[in-house]
Amino acid sequence: MRSFSLIFKQFSRSVLLVACFAFLGTQAHAQGDAAKGEALFKSKCTACHKVESEVVGPALGKLVTEETDDKYLTKWIQNNQALIAAKNPKAVAIFNQYQQKNMTIFADLSDGDVANILAYIRADWKAKSAAPAPGTATGAPAEEKGPSKILIFSLLGVIVIAFIIILVLNRVIATLERMLVKNQGALLVETAEGEAVEQVDKLAWLKKLARNKKFVFFVLICGTLFVGVWGFIGMWTTNVHQGYQPVQPIKFPHDLHAGAMQIDCQYCHSGAYKSKNASIPSLNVCMNCHKTVKTESPEIHKIYDALGYDPKTQKYDSTKSRPMQWIRIHNLPDLAYFNHSQHVKVGKIKCQTCHGPVQTMKEVYQYSPLTMKWCIQCHKRTAVDYKDNAYYTNLEQVHKLLKDGKTPTAALMGGIECGKCHY
Amino acid sequence: MDSNKKYWKGLEELNKTPEFVELNKNEFAEPIPIEEVLTGGGLTGRTPRRDFLKALGFGVGAVTLAACQPVPVHKSMPYLIKPEEVTPGVPNYYVSTYDGQAILVKTREGRPIKIEGHPNDIIAKGGASAQAQASVLDLYDVNRFQSPLKDGSQTGWAQIDDFVVRELLAIKAGGKKIAIVSSTVTSPSTLGVIADFIKQFPATKHINYDAVSYTGIIQANQNSFGKAVLPHYNFDKADVIVSFAADFLGTWISPEEFTRQYVSNRNSKSLEEKKMSRHIQFEAGLSLTGSNADVRIPIKPSEEGAALIALYNAVSGTTLAGPKLNSPAAQNAIAIAAKELVAAKGKALVVAGANDVATQILVNAINSLLGSYGTTIDLDNPSLQYAGNDADFDALVGDMNAGAVDAVFFLNANPVYDYYNSKAVVSGLKKVRLKVSFASGPDETAAVCNVVAPNHHYLESWGDDNAISGYYTIMQPAINPVYDTRQAEQTLMKWSDNPAKDYYTYVRNNWDTNLLAKGGLSGQKGWEQLLQTAFVKEAPKAAGSYSFSLSLGAVAQTISEHSAKLAAGNDKMELSLYQSPAMRDGKRANNPWLQELPDPVSKVTWDNFAAMSAADMKAKGLQDGDVIKIDNGNGYSISLPVLVQPGQARGTISVAVGYGRTVSGPVGTNVGKNAFPFTSLLNKTIQTNAVVSIAATGDNSPLAQTQTHHSIEGRNSIIKEATFVEYKKNPAAGTGNGEGHKEYKPDLFWQNWREDKPKYDWVMAIDLNACTGCGACVVACSAENNVPIVGKDEVRRRREMHWIRIDRYYSFDDKGDGGVTREHDISRLKEDDLDNVKVVYQPMLCQHCEHAPCETVCPVLATVHSSEGLNHMAYNRCVGTRYCANNCPYKVRRFNWFNYWNDSRFDNYLNNEHTQLVLNPDVVTRFRGVMEKCSMCIQRIQAGKLKAKIEKRPLRDGEIKMACQQTCSANAIIFGNQNDPESEVSKALRSERTYYVLEELNVKPGVGYQTKIRNISETEA
Description:
The structure holds two protein chains of two kinds.
Chain A: H1 2-30, H2 34-44, H3 60-66, H4 70-78, H5 80-85, H6 89-97, H7 111-130, H8 142-184, H9 186-202, H10 204-211, H11 213-236, H12 254-260, H13 265-268, H14 271-274, H15 283-290, H16 298-307, E1 309-310, E2 315-316, E3 326-327, H17 340-346, H18 351-355, H19 372-381, H20 390-393, H21 396-403, H22 411-415, H23 418-421
Antiparallel strand pairs in A: 1-2
Chain B: E1 5-8, H1 11-15, H2 18-25, H3 34-39, H4 41-44, H5 49-67, E2 75-76, E3 92-98, E4 101-108, E5 111-117, H6 130-139, E6 149-150, E7 153-154, H7 157-174, E8 177-182, H8 188-200, E9 204-208, H9 215-225, E10 230-233, E11 240-244, H10 255-263, H11 268-272, E12 278-283, H12 288-292, E13 295-298, H13 304-316, H14 328-343, E14 348-352, H15 357-369, E15 377-383, H16 390-401, E16 405-411, H17 415-418, H18 422-430, E17 434-437, H19 444-447, E18 451-452, E19 463-468, E20 471-475, H20 488-495, H21 503-515, H22 523-533, E21 535-537, H23 553-566, E22 573-579, H24 592-596, E23 604-605, E24 610-612, H25 614-620, E25 626-631, E26 637-644, E27 652-657, E28 680-682, E29 685-687, E30 689-700, E31 704-705, E32 721-723, H26 724-729, E33 762-767, H27 776-785, H28 792-796, E34 805-813, H29 823-827, H30 831-835, E35 838-844, H31 853-857, E36 863-865, E37 871-873, H32 883-887, E38 894-895, E39 931-932, H33 938-950, H34 963-967, E40 973-977, H35 984-990, E41 994-995, E42 1007-1010, E43 1012-1014
Parallel strand pairs in B: 8-9, 8-16, 11-12, 11-14, 12-13, 16-17, 17-18, 22-27, 24-26, 32-43, 33-42
Antiparallel strand pairs in B: 1-34, 3-4, 4-5, 6-7, 6-18, 10-15, 19-20, 20-21, 22-30, 23-31, 24-27, 25-26, 25-30, 28-29, 33-40, 34-35, 36-37, 38-39, 41-42
Helix pairs in contact in B: 6-27, 8-20, 9-15, 13-14, 13-15, 13-23, 15-23, 16-18
């Protein structure tokens, strides 16, 4: 018994130690002259590569981080064709993967330069993949990322909790053992304690704290409160996907179109004025401008590919066309009926009220929680725009509410009744 | 003033079977298995502790993991190049034609989801029949042929074309006959294509073959007036209508049109002018028309001839020799009818359903005496809906069996199923070299054809129609072909090497050269206008008056002989075949909406049955559901369950045709039994009456009826009626309003119930005098609101989901004991009383009560009242306690026992990727375990309001129409805002005839009914 708790103690310490070293090690690995590397990367590589996504060549972030053989990478970057000629298996594989397109030879880059570039790519990739929002994955669809992340976090949580429980239990066992030993006699204690004396002393302050009942009680209360609140929030926000930002098949920058270019939302989302669906624009809307604008961009070429459009001949080939599969960000359940035209055209609500500052979003995410509470709050606060609309001005109710000194909000006009949205 | 009538809803209630009495005591239709739970394995069964813990652990784990679900990824795919006219989320409407009637097709994102009547259509003026409503579902039927077939195996169009053209050329060289057999073709362009085909292959004959034929009328008119036409009847111009077994409101010739015309003389507007037509019906089985008649006299089919001769004699004052009418009631009725007909000369109409030339000649003679020609009957603008000639097809069958025919084409015709002698058709077809069926789905005739060239659904087709002389409608596709089918006309053009390469061009040319000018249109502009307006109409010719001048001696002789043949001996019964308004001739048997639509009179779904009178059943010792074998003594017999049908003439049984399809989709196959083989060819016309013997088989097969679900408990405030005489004295007669009427005060909790609805008060008015009970509204509601189909077994368990139902109440005269309807009165009824019943139809849907009893019992507030007077139902809030259904006095709430949209047990109905395309995207489908009910088409209300808001104008009255209201040819339903005193519905509800069902409960229903008025004299009443 005694030996078991000791072994465990040592084992857990070594685990912690290894974990610390591993952490430090990765930190150290990420060090290097990333700043120099960044400059080099931007001048030499960005024509064909990006860290996070595929352009002409592969996405480098993942590739370079996963490849630990820096010598191979240096050789590849300095003269990839020599490597291929030498039939290096890794080199041939990637060469074939990218349709045997040759990469430019960078004989001018020294080993140090390449090391800097690699350092930059790794650091950048690390930063990007650590960021909470997706967008750093190399085009991997969001559905693959979502579950794994949450699952991993929850599994980690379970492991940590289990570890803590084991530690606590171990302490209990140790205490019990000590009592047992005390009862059995001092001799045994002397020999056993001899080895552990030094270590035990180090943790004396902790032991002292643990013996302080008030402190333990305080910690327990805090812990319970924390777990309770965490659990409550977790359950409360189940299926609330505020902040949801899936990776879209085309990196459409709303900040550029709606922000810098000041294109009206309805130019593309023309349904918002007349239909329940704001509607994702059909690709012919994109083509109104992109037949001539930025025709060289690989993202724009995705439009061409989907349409079966050949920019050289400027001809469409419908046999090559395929649907553009956007990922829906705002998902209302089927049981709730929502009509854009009611809000945008009649209520004159700005798109941004619900969709947030889209004009600043590089990639759109779900800004509002889209919960029923959120809907109702707005209906309670928002006054109906009855002016200049004969529909309302002829409604007695509006006059009655105004006479009573009330603002005719959507809610007072019946806008929070079940059947207005659920049918 | 309380009613003197007793009502009962079904015969279980009337006959007080022990089973019914037992069930009636219970709150639930089916016993709740409490006993079973308490005594059976429920409580004593041991659940081992470990199993329990395992289940608990798994459950908690599963729920935890399920809650961790990430954002579900929904793909959203826009159009690549969006068609200009399509806005996702906004419906587009296209005009088209259904059965010669102009319609509107509602499409969403390119797929048709609903059929609506065309408001300017001259036939139904915006109405649409149950069949028309249901036709959209056929479009998505996965059991349609998905490619052409040769000898039963799938092949391509090129192979089929190649084969058929080679065969046709060989046949042409051989010189034998070719026949195109079709249901009556009314399309001018199709007729043109067939004519072109005949030019190419001159041995071809086009034969119109109708499953239910009107040859008798056409030939009688040829005989009497030299015009072989089906007349156009004007029921709206008739003040007195006498019908001999013609179900003109249900199935006869053009029921939607006749319903509209008929009701226009009986609805509120007509009543306010103190005008109401009078309708006397003589028939064997209780038809939809008979149930709406003011006076209905049950007579046997064999007595029909005698009755007509008696009527002729009474009208003309002559004595035409013929059989005597034995029944004193019928004699009396004939005398009264004759007197009234003569008094209404020029505004009288006599019609007969018999497909018999002699009978129809006699009817012509009577109508001529009454001056009907030129007023109620129009021979100069004839109806073209049926042109079949029974003798033609019979001759073809003879030719086929003689080996004189080398090729037969079947276009929308299925004689192997619906011909009286289908064996001869099958044996004849064996001798035919090339047999082509254009059937779009499997049928009996296609099964014996060597080539199947599947036709488009009409919503995929170009075409036109000319149902009534001078009325030309256009048919345009509303969707691309769903399967690899080709329009039959296109196929015929291809095979006959027509110079026009595709049928669209053909139709277009035909309209440009022949038809557009009839409506004053021309050129591209005219064509485009046509595609928006749906039809052109020539100014009708002046209807001439025709006089009958032939001798009737021979006619009377033929009728006598015919009647003698139909008269059954003592041990036999007279069989009368009829079409059910839901299933008609059985061509749409694979349509679950129609199969689940209850027959208006019997309320039977998913089956046909043998209707018998109570006296006959008692004499033979039969109970409802007992299976009898019906044998025509000529080698054909079927076994069907029997059903007591009040009003059925004694000595007769009625059986619906259109059932018993053996080759159809999974829905229609083997539902009921085929009664077509009981028909016979007599004097070159198909007769629908026969003499049969019956024998009990000893089996019992309960029918899936929707009738005795809810007993009426003797309450006399459900149906209110009055006679026309009473109405003229006091318009409020029968409502109980006025003197002595108890005013129910708003009570403590709902004092300001009227003021609570400041904007709108959506209400409905239903005119019981206009409703004929046809059931089109039920199908329209199902289509609009995604109401699921549950199937025969579930209907038997009383789990049908229809949001609107038509309650049918029988009543009989109480012979003046002055008492109101009481339970104990019903048990005193004798069989004699059952022969002469009166019928009331009452559409019943959620009444949207102001003091809704359902709302107060819902523990989760899933059903609450709105400020617009509607009773809302939030499905996602419902937990399925069903308290609300228990507390609803109208029993209109429906519980979802299954996920009907996604449950393999309901595979036949709407549970596949194609049929789900018919769902209305603006209405959610309900999941298992929640209540649902009529929402007053709230999606339409919301859409209507939004349209007004966008257009910045007040909402107009009549702008929002309910699905049931829209499809009603009789305009029996009016919906609108009661806060607007000028709205149609306010006016209707202010009518003196208005009453509220179960008013004494003080639930303040939002649906008002107007009393049923019967045009019967005091002595008859």
